[in-house]
Amino acid sequence: MTVLAPASTAPGVTRSRARGRRRVLWLVVLVATLLLAGVLSVTFGARDVGPADIWAGLTGSTDTASAAAVGKRVPRTILAMLVGAALAVAGAVLQGATRNPLADPQILGINGGASLAIVTGIAFFGLSSASGYIWTGMIGAGAAAVFVYAIGSLGRGGPTPLRLALAGAVTAVAFSSLISAILLPRINVMSVFRFWQVGGVGGATPDTIGQVLPFLVVGFVICLLSASALNTLALGDELAAGLGARVRTARLTASAGAVVLCGAATAVAGPIGFVGLVVPHICRLIVGVDHRWLLPVSAAGGAILLTISDVVGRVIARPEEIEVGIVTALLGAPFFIALVRRQKMRAL
């Protein structure tokens, strides 16, 4: 007589529990690493500070130069974490919504659209407020996303990964040229935003964080609520529709959340690239493709990457600093080349 094992001890259930414990463990490790990165960001820079200076700076003291430096690094660190998390989540969502392994806010021209809109607003309409930057950035990011998708959809076969990547790359180059054309004759605008174009978090203030935080929260909520729909879209449009999913609505909603995150992050930190490309692929290796886990893990990974990149940029060029956008580009470009060779432009 064959005795059936209890359902609780079935191999599938055991594997599922082990996978869940591993995911929780990775999330805990990433959160701990993020806290460590925050400590490093506050400690190291043009001037290294000790525990006493850190405590003095956190309590609002400006009696010493070190304590004052800590007071400036804390909002910088918080903004780096928020922007890194936003870009990583946006990249994961765009990759899932388009089923394109090369989807990234920078590569698809979304960051470039936000940058062009902001620079245009500054040069021609006197844009100056932080909230104005954010709204303008989101409008530009949304317009760029629609434009790239429309161009990639032309012809037979629709928006294939190759077409989207090429349309986004061409659009990003065109936007960059237009930004240069606007800035070159306007020295006053160029002098203010020459570092912003590269991408950095050095100008972070509590007021800036307060202005951008509501938009980032809205974007994060939309993306997290779209996690289950993204899992369904990964099965393919026909099968997803057969399972009752509203494919177009799910894709547009998820993409809207990513655009909000890209536009807001670009408005306060400039067009930082490759975070949204590198982090989601690394996170898939450790937690799998389930977006309910992938998105929060990507948020932690993106925050870690941008915070550490900011520290590296401050340390290796003392007493000057290298903007974080340059550091992420140096890290991300080799990864992008390796990814193209490995994926061979296949869909996810």
Automatic annotation (TrEMBL):
It is a multi-pass membrane protein. GO terms for molecular function: transmembrane transporter activity. It holds the Pfam family FecCD. InterPro entries: ABC_BtuC-like (IPR037294), ABC_transptr_permease_BtuC (IPR000522). The keyword Protein transport does not apply. It comes from the Bacteria. One of its GO terms (biological process) is siderophore-iron import into cell. Gene3D superfamilies: ABC transporter involved in vitamin B12 uptake, BtuC. It is found in: Cell membrane. Belongs to the binding-protein-dependent transport system permease family. FecCD subfamily. This is Iron complex transport system permease protein. It comes from Microbacterium enclense. The lineage of its organism: Bacteria, Bacillati, Actinomycetota, Actinomycetes, Micrococcales.
